[in-house]
Amino acid sequence: MQYSPKKDALYALAIWSAPILVFLFLMYSYSVALLVLFILTVLLSAWIWHSTRYEIRDGELIIQSWIFRRRVKIQDIVSVKKTKNLLASYALSRDRLEITEQNQDTYYIAPNDVDAFIAELKQYNPYILIG
Question: Is the whole model's pTM more than 0.70, yes or no?
Answer without folding.
Answer: yes
